[in-house]
Specification:
homodimer, about 180 residues, alpha+beta, 3-stranded antiparallel beta sheet, 3 helices
């Protein structure tokens, strides 16, 4: 059986706004030796798969600075303080696309990377969404809204057009929600 | 159409071994204003879904320092210098579990988080794997091997038992490979 490591010490190394870097000093229960670990801390994230009554997924295209290229994703972002994940999902959907819908349900919660991140990411499904107003973008955002037929999503993942791993996971929860985990 | 941001400057802030932190200064094509961005750089990663002839997925349980709890995953790790992703997948499978198999195929490549990471993660499927020797763990590893029936995986994702987002994405590529993107 795998036992937890004893935390001998921890300290904050840097705060970069959207994430902070933490250094842990922990004891391996297998070897009895201490190890230094680095962790990226951040607030929880949300992503929302928004589907119109016609079966179209409201996606966003934006330039992503990690890979310095444009990615196709579903709306999402960071859960603000004093906000529930569902409120964050509705807010990000509305701000990034101008779409909204009454019916929203959580279809999954995951750790984006439990090895080196401490946060969780909540995945929502919003159905019957409609365009209610234009986008309301932050200074740092430049987002194009595109509608993709829900049945085209698996092919776009298989051919690499959609290659953001968090989106691939989100669409897996969407798939499991649609067909059930049979 | 979404245009790329012009990179005005970049510098390395910190090197933590498994990842480095980069600071970019880039110009928004929408507002014409510069923004400061933080990116976590690292080498590419691999994950491998190893399946025995009996349809059992060879999984690993290990303590994950980001969330400070135990996670169920498939084998994986960092691609070493002068190593192909496939070689890394075979090596990690063998080191972490003692299992090996002749037939290995890449079923997906994704960006784990293109917003704040620069690397890619390659997903492999290894079929007909068999236990050939005991594990060969690094000082910093403490890993338990467990076999899970491939048909039980969707239920374990749906109920949150498997909640590492990279694994959820890996199992989505596995699903698409098995059923085809219909």
């Amino acid at each position: 059986m795998i036992r937890p490591w004893e935390l001998l010490g921890t300290r904050l190394l840097a705060d970069h706004g959207i994430f902070r870097v933490r250094e842990d000093y922990s004891l391996s229960p297998r070897t009895g030796k201490p190890h230094r670990l680095y962790v990226m801390e951040s607030r929880d994230w949300v992503n929302v798969v928004p589907v119109t009554a016609e079966g179209r997924v409201v996606c966003v295209r934006q330039f992503r600075h990690g890979v310095r290229s444009v990615a196709i994703e579903v709306p999402g972002g960071i859960v603000d303080p004093r906000e529930t994940p569902e409120e964050a999902a509705r807010r990000e959907l509305f701000e990034e696309t101008g779409y909204a819908g009454e019916d929203i349900v959580r279809i999954g919660t995951m750790n984006p990377n439990p090895a080196i991140q401490n946060n969780r990411c909540h995945i929502f499904l919003a159905t019957g969404v409609q365009r209610e107003m234009s986008q309301s973008l932050d200074q740092g955002e430049d987002i194009e809204v595109i509608l993709i037929n829900e049945h085209d999503i698996p092919g776009l993942i298989a051919d690499g057009t959609i290659d953001n791993g968090i989106m691939v996971a989100a669409f897996h929860y969407f798939h499991l929600h649609r067909v059930g985990p049979s």
